[in-house]
Amino acid sequence: MSGLFGRGAGGARPANPAASKEDLGLVKDTSTAQFGNDVIVESARQPVLVDFWAPWCQPCKQLAPILEKAVKAAAGKVKLVKMNIDDYPEIPTRLGVQSIPAVIAFQRGQPVDGFMGALPEREVRGFIERLAGPIEEADPLAEAQALVEAGDAEGAAELYAAVLSENPGNPAAAGGLAKLLIGAGDLDNARKLLGSVAEGASQDKAILGAKAALELAEQATGLGNSGELLARLATHPEDHQARFDLALLLNAQNQRAEAAAELLEIIKCDRTWNEDGARKQLLQFFEAWGFTDPASVAARKKLSSLLFS
Q: What local confidence, expressed as pLDDT, does residue 25 receive?
């Protein structure tokens, strides 16, 4: 499981590549010359928090991710402007900033509130809510799925693990993390994780999908390599078993469209082969991938065309 958590529990995760467009521009650095536009003018539209910090300040480093997270969670109700007091000492001196981190909130061009020190997340959120109203709670499962779709398996795994640490029985988190482990080739830990799920959650769609993915990964072990199977098909294109095995290998390599295409070719040539085995395997692919996955949607359309044309 360590491969999915290579940054370590205390490591900072890179900015979410799937962050919404609304996140853009909510956090920025400023200078003495830009302060008027970035803070005074901008605070006529919504409150602007100014974070006075310095590179040598450890509490500043603790506060920064908490502050940025809360500002982004406010979804545009406030903005955050960061000023390095070592590079730009004039404005913090003018405002009487004597200790950092110091956060001053501006509204309609005037400082209206503030705090000093690295406050905990709950207090930072409360400070922002007093200025801008309630902040909706972020959905870590939705964020994890967005990270999966953006290709950040490690970031998604950290979020799923955090959910499971608070709610060990959460099937969506367990299923999501199991799929990531399967994708990383860690079948043993995926199997253990799915085996620990409570019986009442065993039929949850996330768990069923992860179990299907695990079964497919286990089927793909010991099938040789795709080159050997392609060579067999080049001389014997009617070798449905070779094509079936190739589909399993392609799926294990996350080549979903290609894997579906091989099974569809079997169905097209011989629907009855192996007691309708190709169609049944394709349905298992859909369950493992999720029925809304683009590969599932495309393959279902092609399957319907073959079956009902």
A: 82
